Amino acid sequence: MIVALSLCVALFSANWTVLYVIQQAISRDLHLTPAAGVWLIYIYPAALLGVLIPVKGRLSVVLLGLAAFGLTSAAGAFAANGTMLVTCRAGQGLAAAIVVRAGFELARAHFRGTQWWPALVIPLAMAIPAQIVGPVLGGFITDHLSFRWVFLINVPLVVIAVVAVALFTPPARAINP
Known about the structure:
The protein is mainly α and 177 residues long. The chain is 79% helix and 0% strand. The protein is built from 8 helices and no strands. The longest helix is centred in the middle third of the chain and has 29 residues, at 82-110. The relative contact order is 0.23. The model has no long low-confidence stretch (mean pLDDT 87).
């Protein structure tokens, strides 16, 4: 379960920083205004504030959030204009927030006492290297393919995450408030 959550956190963290390096290529290809370029960068972390929304820690919520992340990533790969791409980035951020919140609620339901801290810290520790890898990977993909592949690569990664979460995360036990 901790590995599955770590995979999700790494995926979402890399997506947070991936556009920092390739924003100019996206702006050029989609003819973004400077304001749209700024929104493209900052809407994802702003939408991640959705983690503050109370969400029940259910396996189905995590899986639906992952599916939403995959769908908004695929839509972003085929975005025809800046407005659509910014909207897709907002959807990615909100979907990531839902998965993180519901995933950690699930972990809290399964890990008690001193077991809770590793279940929280290990996935969060994955965020740091993933945020470093994001711009490197984004630059490499954009230099050799197209910025659209930065979004499209999320689809198979989400499928892997869905399988990992479904296999390794037991359904939530009742949580006593």
